[in-house]
User: Fold these one by one.
Assistant:
Number 1:
Amino acid sequence: MSGGRATRLPERPTTGGEKVSESVQDRRAHPRIDTAVDLRIQPDEGGAVARVVTGNLSLGGLYCMSQVDIPEMTRLGVRLMLPGPGGDEAEEPVDLQAVVVRRRELPSHTSNGARYELALYFTSLDDMARTRLSRFLDAQR
């Protein structure tokens, strides 16, 4: 490694309001789609089910906000409630496994309690779930 100065990469905002460097955006294997999808998350070791809505979604993971504090590196069962084909049919749940890779407490301006930004990385997505999620994301583009 040379002794030269490090160059700071330009930043662009994410849906969550924080800045992510261009190199992080370039490293993402799957494009993120800004979309609101209901989901239910539950820690693998048990505990309450949290119902949240995605801010963005990809084949590799999702961003959401939660009123339930879930620590980083917590393994979760996730149920995405994707709309049926055509968008007007009953929701079709897609079950998968994920891990919390980023958690940030948001400032609370009300007495409703704390809110948390969560970034989840999908660790287990079977072929049927991958196909269903891929079709949904393609339709959102």
Number 2:
Amino acid sequence: MQSENTIRQLVRQVNAYARDDQLSGRLYVDLVDMLEACRWFVSSMDQLGEELTRDELESLLIKIDVNVVQHLGFHMRSLKRDMPRVLDAVGRPDDKAAE
């Protein structure tokens, strides 16, 4: 829960400069979804036993592909599009941000 609050605070700070609710909304969703995918991966790795059956291994690999590779890939592409705009907005001198 602390991580979600930290992300929420980060997005609020970005929004003060970006003045684009859609951008800050996408940023929040991307970061929270990435956090959840990473949590799922760490939790799954922590719960693995010594040896998996072939079916268990296949199932785990499919879940890693869907939950990590594909899902994180989607959010990474989204961030790749939005991050230059976020950095530009935050890096503007204060007088330009107020225009």
Number 3:
Amino acid sequence: MTTSTTNPMITTGCIVYVRKGCPAYKIAKGNTFIVLVVEPMGAEYGHRVKVRFKVRTGQRAGEEITFYARHLNRLSDPFTRLSRDDPTKNIEVEFLTSPVTQENPNV
């Protein structure tokens, strides 16, 4: 019998860790982001998903940035690749913690 483990999906309020940065966007490995918005864009955009983050650490700390995932299902992969205007310039993020709650706002 095989046991399957499901990866947590990246959703609004989650904290993600950057596994692979991109110098063009001034994002380094080890930065952390808070997910502000996850917005599926629909079939007319190839089912891409817009993900807006607030940068917690690094050179761009405090800024809000937007990246795109290929499909909503990719947000539950162990590592998620996100890009902006150029698909050759991308970052790779990993789920770090569950959504920030009122009981624990300092995560």
Number 4:
Amino acid sequence: MVRQAEALLLIHSLSPDEQKTALAKLIRVYTDKSVNENQTFKSIKKFVYSTILPAEKIDQVANELDNQEQQKMIQTQYTWQAVDEFANTYRPLLRALLKVLVLDGPQHKAVQKAYHFLQDIFKREQAISKIPFNEFPLTFINAKIRNFIYDADSNTVQTDRYEYECYQQIANYLNGRSLFLSESINYRSLTDELLPNWQKNKSTIIRKANKPLLNQPMSQFIEEKAKPLDEKIIAINEAIKIGDNPYVKLKRKKDGSTIWTLPYTKKSPELNNPFYEKLPPVNIIRIMQFVNEKIQFMKEFTHIKPHYAKSQLDEMAIYACLLANGTNLGIIKMSNLCDLNFTSLQTTEKNYLRLSTLRAANDVISNAIAKLPIFRHWNLRPDILHASLDGQKFVTEWDNLLARYSQKYYGFDQGVVAYSMIANHTPINAMIIGANEHESRFLFDLIYNNTSDILPDIFSTDTEGSNQLNFLLLHLIERLFAPRYRSLRDRSESIICFSDPSKFKDCLIKPDRKLNDRLILSEEDNIKHVLASLLMGETKQSNIVTKLSSQKFASRTKRALWEMNAVLMTDHILTYICDLTFRQSIQGSLGRGEAYHQLRRYIELVNGRHFRGTNETQISVWNECARLLANCLLYYNATMLNQWMEQCDHRRQ
């Protein structure tokens, strides 16, 4: 609707680019040597009006620049005109949904009243235009836009605009998880997501979960994690002051204040080892056959009806389907390129290539890579396995529920995100998410539901992978979350302390506020209820995380969880500033994730095609096929390097 409003607005005014061009030409009149300085000002004005802008357009540009509020009002006016113009396109579908969706929530009672008012009218199949003015709930409408929707003096309501404003607010509150749909999977309330009968079964659930954070009182968390923050803040500031941390650079501003930066170490240029140049090219099918001979991952491709299967597993057909889907070629084109017919490939794909079998096969290969002696030599720190998580954008050719438009990543196309977890170059888990979803909401899902035997100790992401919960969620499963922030200094301004913040007023790196430990202690039972529900996995963990990480969702329990997360985030930032090895490990882990993305992109570009699945399952299957191809390549390379390493060790080289 905003695009239509902008189009209507541009009909009656100059675009921002046209305004800038006109202003530039007007300013150059003062320095233009071709203009005769002896002529009258009247003739100069006439020249400007005829060659640059007419007088009325100059006034319009000046007024728009001078009065931004008026410009916003004009844009709002055209927005509502666009609503009137396009009402017939969205109204039938939204009214059909309105009749059946059950809205609920403790907040936003005014807009809920308007929603139920419209719902009652359309269920009784009444004409909204015939409803008397005094029956319309109007309190949910913002004062700034009331004049565009109704007129109290004439007792009239513009019903299309009234409906649109109600729908728009409901959509915003649903996305912000401050209103709920009781019969929805993604939009139901937090209470519906949590384990039932908590008070009755609490002891049994906590014992079954067997996690230290649930077994201990919250006062112990405060004692062990929050109280030491004060000393750590003072120690880090003292180290910077006396020069024990030379990596922190100080700069004095013009106003006399001092700012600090922590520059990233520039990466040395990468060169291919001459060893790889001596290796002959190998067919990808031969590589998959080699991997299967070593570890028999083909055994994981079981028939969808194992007790009634009439056909036997055809390994070459499996290889062809994996290659066709992994490279986005598809089995139709693959049948035209190989000696296997389409019917054979289609039967094999339907009977054997499922998410469960593909993930099991990937786990077999990943576990085999981890068992090679060379795997531990790839650790960035001794005896610590450091993994990274990141999303990679892929264009989709066909419409599906996950595909979204993003001009930044897809241009005029639409696409999805392949969210992957990589440990020591190996992709150990992956999932497909919508391009409109925040990656951080799925981080716990990806880590906790990892079915491979590779269990990393530390997990790193970029800024997109962090939110107000992930530090706490990984601490819950006894893992460490270690993101790399885009602007570390800005993020450090939100750290907290345990005691009075005024005692740090002279510090360079100072806390923003004091921990609200009373809130944590008062919400202890609710905190454990939420955390236990995440561990039990009876609902999608990403749904709970999405609700609890929303700014618009009002809850004391949410605020208490955010306080606990802030403690762990503060500890991470302080460690990041003072520990060079820690920073290098995070950077190295994220670099390996990018290297996998390059490999994954090359696999996709073999045929220059995009994902062509029509639903989430089909796209996920293709993504798992591509991950399996990558895992086969990694196992093949790792096996060669491992043999070379063992030969060198045997010769003591």
